[in-house]
Amino acid sequence: MSEPIEHPPILIVDEQEKLLRLVAMLMSRIGFPDVDGVSSGPEALEKMRQRRYALVISDLNMEPMDGLSLLREIRGDDTLMNTPFILTESSFDFEDINLAHQAGADAFILKPFDIAVLKNKLKQVINRKPRKREAPIATQSTLEQEFPMLGKY
């Protein structure tokens, strides 16, 4: 008998409940049924310190902590720094993209997005090399060991 396939957990961060549900539905359709949703950056950090996520998809414009501040917090934390991170927004200007890139965003998705766009971005993000510090905590191989399904996307 074959072992059940484990689906890596995904965290969605968006103030709009409808968008949280939409992204969760899209993730489920492409093979990621284990999705948690929160409506703020502080909630996201709390969740991430309780559970290891294979990916964070966050809205850029939120209060009290926007997606860029959330990203900076994650990249500044040795335990969380290698968590793939996708920013979403209805429009990005050059400054947004530049700041997010400098902060360590792995990808950007314009809203509204569809399954094809999401799949494409997931492939880019999941196959990237890990970030390094002087003494790196997590490596790509560690992510793949924790979430073997990642190698299939």
CATH superfamily membership, which one?
Answer: Response regulator
Question: How much helix, percentage-wise, in residues?
Answer: 25-40%
CATH topology title: Rossmann fold
Task: Describe the sheet with the most strands.
Answer: 5 strands, parallel
Oligomer: single chain
Judging from the principal axes of the Cα atoms, what is the shape? globular
Strand content: 5-15%
Secondary structure tally: strands? 5
In angstroms, what separates the terminal alpha carbons? 24 Å
Strand line-up of the largest beta sheet:
2-1-3-4-5
Structural class: alpha/beta
The CATH first-level class comes to: Alpha Beta
N-to-C order of helices and strands? EHEHEHEHEHH
Give the C-alpha Rg: 15 Å
Low-confidence stretches: 134-141
Give your account of this protein's structure.
The protein has 153 residues and is of the alpha/beta class. The protein has one domain (10-152): Response regulator (Rossmann fold). Helix content is 40%, strand content 14%. It is built from six helices and five strands. The chain has helices at 17-29, 41-50, 67-75, 94-103, 115-126, 140-146, and strands spanning 10-13, 35-38, 55-59, 85-89, 107-110. The protein has a five-stranded parallel β-sheet, sandwiched between helices. Helix 2 packs parallel to helix 3. It is globular and about 30 Å long. Mean pLDDT is 83; it is low at 134-141. InterPro entries: Bact_response_regulator, CheY-like_superfamily, Sig_transdc_resp-reg_receiver. Residues 9-126 form the Response regulatory domain.
